[in-house]
Fold these 2 entries.
Entry 1:
Amino acid sequence: MALRQKNKFLEFVYDFYSSMKNHEISLAYEGEMNHQVMKAFTNLTIEKMSRQSENNPIQKKVFHVMVECLQNISKHAFHSELNSENDLNNGVLLVSNTEEFYQVTTGNIIEKNKVKDLNEFLEMINELDDSNLRNLYKKQLKEGAISLKGGAGVGFIDIKRKTGRKLEFHFLPLNNSQSFFIFTSTIPRKLKP
Amino acid sequence: MDAIYLEGTDDCPSVILDKDKNIFKLSGKSLPENVSAFYDPIIAWLENYAKDPLKKTTFQILLDYFNTASSKLILDIFMILEEMQENGSEVEINWHYADYDEDMKEAGIEYSEMVDLKFNLILK
């Protein structure tokens, strides 16, 4: 490696580190999302929270949100048929924590033709109040009704119910056939009274 | 009929289905890599049991955690038990939850609203 390139790389490593610190990110991952990866990161996060004496219900909510988000990527397969195996089940995961909340962000490539349905579904969930959301959850379980592929729908409904916050999501267009789906869940560190 | 005894792991619950000893129990964590592969034998066992059940069946749920993929299969279990009850046998569910765990308590209440079975919510 030429010296300049090497220096650039070192700079990148340090910038990455600083950037993580600045954004209070405690965990960052890019790569394949599968069951083993999901278990490793949820356990790591929970162990850390436990060492910091975070209270149990909060630990459980963070665990739950991570499981559902990561399973959405690993199972519900927003695979691109065009793009061979390279980005199959791949994605990014970021976990951050501040004094007030934990945040779990995932990002993954989805096919552009799925964006509309997913967007409508997530917006619909955001419009529902607690009791309607509860009814929808029960209906989904019982009938598997308006399901997105493989039941991903219930996971999103449940995340909104468990966090008590609106779902935050964005779609960044990448090219003619793909978009990047970013999904952030926020878990307040103070429980509702 | 042969009993089922499964030792729990960090992603699969412990299961006991034993007609002779009158124990029906699910405990631990449920987030299996493949939910159908895990729950299919349990569902099949219960469907078989439902053909000739005990006079009274108490199903114990002591789960610490289950993901949404498992929640559908747990409902399937309750629906088999509900049908068994419609066919004349007595069924009740003992739903255990930890004192800090409002979400798990709430989940028990919701299941009790989805099926026509007697649920006892029990503090662990």
Note: The CA atoms of residues 75 and 114 of chain B lie 8 Å apart.
Entry 2:
Amino acid sequence: MNTPPHDAIPPRGEPSQPPERTGSARLRPPSRRVSGRAIGVWTLRLLFGAVLTLVVLSLLAWGASSAPWAWIPERAAENAWMLPVAYSVYALAKIAIVPSWRYRVHRWEVGADVIYTRAGWISRTWQLVPVNRLQTVDHTQGWLERVFDVATLQVQTASYAGSSTIEGLDSDEARRISEELAVRAGTLRDDAT
Amino acid sequence: MDRRHESEPNPHGAEPTDPATGGWVAPGSTPSGTARGPGQGAAEVSDPGSAPSAPAVGGAAADAPSAAEQPRSWWGEAPEGGPPAGSGARSARRLSPRSMVVGPINQLRGLLLPVLAGLVVGGFNPWLLTATGAGVVALLIGGLVTWRTFRYEVEDDRIEIRRGLIRRSRRTIPLERVRGVDVTSTLLHRMLGVAVVRIEAAAGSAGATEDGKLDAVSAAEAERLRRVLLHRRAVLTGRDAAARRGPRAADPAQGPEPGRDTSGTTEDPPGADGVADDIDDPDATVTHFTMPRSWYLYGVLSLGYLLTPFVVLATLLGMVQQSAGEVATDFFVDWVTSTDSAFLLVFGTVSVGVLVALMPLFAVVSYSLTHWGFSLRDRDGSLVAERGLFTRRSVTLEKRRIRGYELLDNPLERTRGAVGLRAIVTGLGDTATRAVLLPVGPRPRVEEVVDSALALFRGPLTRHPRAALYRRLIRAVLPFAAVAAVALAFGAVWPAAVAGVLALLGVPLAVDRYRSLGHGYDGERVSVRSGSLSRSQATVERSAVIGWTWTQTLFQRRSRLADLQVTVGAGAGGYTAQDASLEESVDFAARITPEMVRPFLAADGDEEGWADDLRGPGRGSA
């Protein structure tokens, strides 16, 4: 394995490890990707957010440069136009990169007993949720998602921290999975804590 | 839906035990109980002579066969050792008549200062006096109305609380969902021999709306309710109870329990149902812990209690400011300007010195007040923690719902090797204080109690990689160092010095934070530790782990670290091993719950990494 040197456990007194431990293992990526149409949803969602922010910023910049507010320093007022410009460059870059990147990271797998998901883009999250601990299964579809015919599946356990969300599933598949999971979760009537 | 009749005042006072109680049933009335079929049929038993009795009882009988786990006794068809159906066993009870006094007094206490101030400022003129008197009378009438209209009733499978004169409400709490019964009595309550009973019934949504509050019942009744509710619930959920207490229920000659604790005599009120009798067995109570005198001194180590004198001072000043307002301010300003400055300096120094010197004393006193006579007992499959001098709190936590425990300490407490203990309980939500099991005390003794009351984690904690130390150093030092540098660049010496000192202080903090990090598994329990100024080591049973979450940021990725969160359907919902080695933590999870993690482990060489993601679509075997 390629364990870097600093991963070694520092030899300072306390820890003495049980002998049977192997010490290292890796998770493989979940097997399934979300629907490719999810890229469209994420792109448009980012776009709308960016446009809204841009409008606000432009108004601010316009106000700062034209309104006679004395407390704004001269230099700031003169260069206020740079704010929306800089933001739009940033937003464009983000819109170009993030959705496809996220698509590559987002993966899921419903195993025999466990739901395994991976999400995020720069930071990422791997989550394991056992099916027999499910309490609720939500299948939701916003208007944008409906346009692209995708859906979001959310499973919840007794812990708020144990809730897992799969965004951008093909809507038929999401419905099928949610019904299947609901049936499987319903057959176990413990309090699932 | 609410066809309730308040027909006549009951001459017997708090406990109407009239045998002629009629009952009628309205199925499907409570929206809360969707999970339980039979419980939805809310039953209403009202005062004699007011309700049509016969026709609807069939509805309950029709509901009964759908009871899931075991044959339950509905309507007393065959209650174990209990009295027959429809008798006084399930008659609605009232609050203690003394609550008519307690409620108004408690309400009045909040208004006392403003009213007094008003009277003083208003010069006791007759109008104000009359208004005040009218207010007091109104409060008393309110207390009377509350007492008259408030009824509660423990049935076989639920407790019902009905209240309200004009806007009537009825709350039904299925006993299966009762998570705990909390008995509190303030000094006033105890002088009058009453107590407040809170029934916690949080299921998923931990909110006050789910709770049932009885304010107030007699101390004996509170004790009885606690035992009956928890016992009935245990029978309903039918895990241990049926087997353990079944035989005992057949023995009705079980004597009443001798007075047990501070809540006064605990003889059962006449007319109480038989269920209470078969569970008050003094042998079943095991005392795990009673607080030794020396432990009160640990209050000195708690920052919150150390700050008590300042809090008290601030409160006093606030009160003076509120009641006397500008007069006090003017007086103070006058006094300051007219007094000799040297004297002022000495006076100020001395008073601050006195306050600081008093800090430990105040800490111990206030700590003792809240933790007086702390005891932890084991009773009927529950842990009961009691504490408090003036306000005596008793918290009952069912052992079945305890998933683990947390050991908490701060740097001061660590110097004396002291820790506090909290339980990790399902259904308590964010009300963390209710799960306190032990006050702060020496670690060996605390661990001893944990071992006898729950089960101790006996295993080493794995240290986290060295990179975690660097991350902590960067986080604790870098921001202040940057501020110091910027301040220096702008020539601001004082801010630079302050930021520099803070940056230096960050070094030991970061080292300590790193040394706290650790996670371990002893074959049955998982333990995770983190934090410095408030360090916590959470230990949960293996079976309580209901999932795993790894989170890795860009910075963690470089040094192959990740935060591993152990998902638990109790306590805080999840406990995180911060900055653990990703590979080691995956192996850790796989050892604890192989069935959950093993299917997703990578074979050697099949590495997950950036490259895998950037290779693009098509690789995933979709």
Note: The longest strand of chain A covers residues 114-120.
